[in-house]
From TrEMBL:
Region of interest (Disordered), ranges: 311-345
Source organism, top-level taxon: Bacteria
The protein's name: BREX system serine/threonine kinase PglW
Composition bias, Polar residues: 313-333
Length: 544
């Protein structure tokens, strides 16, 4: 009998944690009992026995307490109310060997299920403690028999559900008009959801009580996560979870320049980046008829193995005749490029697309005078209400602070920059860099990917990147440039264009791009004067 009971508990644990298929992570005790072919009382008893087993084991107890700590941190950061799907994603990101960039959908689903199982078991453990102590720490809400929402205040549950209902209403209304392919702009979503959240919260308390509304990005994602049919795009827009692939294509590719050519993988990646919650587009040749129905004018070119516009504008109007350098090595050239109105137009098109889609762009600035590329970086940040980041300055500051904390003479560390490779001084400098670069990377990604970045934020403009190339840290930019990366703002990297070093390069070393033809542009000095008032108006509306 003891062996049979242990086997049943093992079977139940496998079902709860997802290592054996057949049960949802947050299934009820009745569903668990049915899956085990046991009575309902026995199902509830098995859950209690598993909690006792896990609580008596130091390793599992530590693991589950750690999961609860993560959940509690996310709950506080989210303003006291959070969707279960958000908690699951946070825990998945902390699992051993977790790789948020994996393209293996089966593997990602497995990790998602494991994370959900751990969260469920951890919350069951919390429930046991709450019952024993007679003190309820969290309030929970189920939809369709599944746990979907937790909060530290009942009023926040009502407010979140009101925002979710409003999200569905907004998407339904947008779809019925047929003018925006069913997409609700990020600004409108934040405004409307904030009103619904506040009204519901105040209706359950004193109208003068301050409403703890989550940050803009978190509010939108919270409402979508617990809604019936709403998802959030990579730009913070609301859209239907059942959006047609043709509509997704029109929205994700609608801002392309007519000279743009995309591989099938780039098309699929762009749509996935814009609409991460939709099903992935199929591979070729099944992708071809979907693109044709989207009405974009793109068709497959067998000779180039790329999609291109059926009718392209003349090269003199839109060509970018320096793009080849983005995926070739250093190519010395004897003469400076000749700029045309086409360069200005291509530049404006690419930057406008980046602003609309939170894109990553490397901007190569031909240097005729010292500091010219630096002046362009400042101008871009000022003109587009962006933020300028001196990469060299940030790294030097971090190294100085680290050296001071460790009692290292700063003059000694600084002089090691000139040391020959392999020497003791060079190894010491590398050791300092290895200590400070993880934090630099984390802070940089926080400025780009954090949910706390407000929708519609201006670009983060990076300048002076030489240390990344000199010490082998250019991979810091690879994550930022990934087409599927969930950027919350545009990222523009300004690099000088020198003789022999043309393209997306830093000190002769290439920057890894997700789409070499679509993420590099040469700065044209005629762009500012060529920009008309109509262009300004168009760009403003596109950013909105």
């Amino acid at each position: 009998v003891g062996t049979q009971r242990a086997s049943t508990r093992r079977h139940a644990a496998e079902l709860l944690l997802g290592t054996r298929p057949g049960l949802d992570a947050f299934a009820s005790g009745h569903e668990l009992a049915t899956a085990l072919d046991k009575t309902l009382p026995r199902g509830h008893q098995i859950l209690k026995e598993l909690q006792a087993d896990w609580g008596s084991n130091a390793d599992t107890r530590t693991l589950l307490d750690g999961v609860l700590d993560v959940a509690d941190t996310v709950l506080r950061d989210s303003g006291g109310v959070v969707a279960i799907s958000t908690l699951t994603a946070e825990i998945r990101g902390r699992l051993p060997q977790a790789d948020s960039g994996t393209t293996d959908l089966v593997e990602r689903a497995r990790r998602e299920r494991t994370a959900a199982g751990l969260l469920r078991v951890a919350y069951d453990r919390l429930t046991e403690h709450e019952s024993a102590e007679g003190d309820r720490q969290l309030v929970r809400r189920r939809h369709g028999g599944r746990l979907t929402l937790v909060a530290d205040d009942e009023k926040l549950l009502a407010a979140a559900e009101a925002a979710a209902k409003r999200a569905d209403e907004l998407v339904t209304a947008a779809h019925s008009t047929g003018t925006t392919d069913g997409v609700v702009a990020a600004g409108a979503a934040v405004r409307e959801l904030g009103r619904s959240f506040s009204r519901a919260y105040r209706s359950a308390t004193d109208p003068d009580t301050p409403v703890p509304v989550p940050s803009d990005a978190r509010l939108v994602r919270l409402a979508a996560a617990i809604s019936r049919n709403t998802a959030v795009s990579g730009r913070g827009e609301l859209h239907s979870r059942t959006m047609e692939p043709t509509a997704a294509l029109r929205l994700a590719l609608g801002g392309l320049a007519q000279t743009e050519q995309l591989t099938a993988a780039e098309v699929r990646a762009r749509v996935a980046a814009r609409f991460p919650d939709l099903d992935r587009l199929p591979q070729r040749p099944h992708l071809d008829p979907i693109i044709a129905r989207a009405g974009l004018g793109l068709s497959w070119d067998e000779t180039r193995s790329r999609y291109r516009y059926e009718t392209q504008a003349p090269p003199s109007q839109t060509s970018l005749h320096t793009r080849q350098a983005t995926h070739q090595g250093s190519t010395p050239e004897a003469t400076d490029p000749q700029w045309t109105a086409g360069d200005a137009r291509a530049q404006r098109d690419m930057l406008a697309t980046s602003l609309r889609e939170n894109g990553f762009v490397v901007i190569g600035v031909p240097v005729h005078r010292p500091g010219e590329h630096d002046a362009v970086a400042h101008s871009l940040a000022d003109d587009h209400h962006g933020e300028l980041l001196d990469v060299t300055g940030a790294i030097v500051t971090a190294m100085r602070e680290f050296s001071s904390a460790k009692g290292l003479p700063w003059d000694l560390v600084r002089s090691a920059d000139a040391a020959e490779s392999g020497t003791r001084d060079a190894r010491g400098l590398r050791a300092v860099l290895d200590q400070v670069m993880p934090q630099f990377r984390a802070e940089l990604e926080q400025q780009v990917f954090s949910d706390d970045v407000p929708p519609g934020s201006g670009p983060l403009v990076l300048r002076e990147l030489s240390p990344l190339a000199r010490y082998g840290y250019l991979d810091v930019l690879a994550h930022l440039s990934d087409l599927s990366a969930p950027r919350r703002r545009p990222v523009w990297v300004v690099v000088p264009q020198l003789r022999g070093q043309r393209g997306a390069m830093v000190d002769g070393k290439p920057i890894q791009l997700g789409s070499p033809g679509g993420q590099f542009v040469v700065w044209s000095p005629t762009a500012d004067t060529a920009q008309t008032q109509d262009d300004n108006d168009t760009e403003t509306s596109e950013v909105m």
